Give the backbone structure.
Amino acid sequence: MSATDWTPRPGAAPFHRQVLAQAGMEARLMLRNGEQLLLAVVIPVIVLVGAVQGADRIGLELDERAIDVFTPGVLALAVMSTAFTSLAIATGFERRYGVLKRLGSSPLPRSGLLVGKVGALLVVEVLQVAVISAVALAMGWDPAGGGLGALGAVLVGLLGTAAFASLGLALAGALRAEATLAAANLVYLLLMAGGAVVLPASAYGSFGDVVRWLPSGALGGGMRAALADGQLAPVAMLTLLAWAVVGTALTARTFKWE
């Protein structure tokens, strides 16, 4: 074998391999964090079981069975908890400890770092959907719509992830870590209670005409349209797309890496 066969080939790995490696590392870190798992899986499952049991006990009037109404909303809540709250908190503390600054100086471009974070969110969301769907099916959930409903749910989920991830990054890039922690949890609780994500907008009376335009209302409404009615929700999708554009613009304008 000639000496030339051992000649080093310095250089960074291809962009897609760097992004996949970053996404895998981010996903493992999220799944190893107890607080992240609480937000990602435990709280949505508790909300699902509690909402269904509570609706039956207090006689809440719904257009369909409680499990069929609440499951799409809880799936939407899971997307919101991971793409917004978990991402914002994790990114805020990565800024505080200088992790983002060091990663920003690596061969992985900063755009690739952000893409890797979103890729990790999608991995965690697949796990969330699997767990929540299994619990819901065990409770008698009967999703409607077949292939069209599944397609609608995937599209709404992807747009919801983009919208909430961009807003979460904007929050984490503009505030200190402690402020991000407080703000992300506060927004999460407010949207879970009054953002038409778990309950349909119609349950909020006249206020429902307002909350349906929030990213939480659009995500919850789109999920219910897909999985409860078997329909696509173009208005909800366009609303989420608009929020994603706004969040991306805010992130590009205000995000600080240290």
